[in-house]
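Sharing a chain and its predicted structure for anyone who wants a worked example. Both blocks are below, sequence first, tokens second.
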Amino acid sequence: MERIPAYGLAKEEELLFGEGQPDPVSLPPDSRALHLLQRLRDEARRFAVTYHRLAGQGRVDLLLIDILYNIGAGRIYAEI
């Protein structure tokens, strides 16, 4: 299986860092690619924060419901 390279987007400077790349890439502020990467980064962070919060409460099952049905934990708790 082919390995997929990893990339990361720095929050402050919005620089794109690539695995094995010595220098980061700066995308134009109005770039659609930059906006897509920002949205992916922000969603990944939201997911990680939600997972850790629910895992600490022993409620990872709520995270699975959120993933499968796109229902937030707050709404789930309100209906329980």
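Comments welcome. The mean pLDDT is 81.
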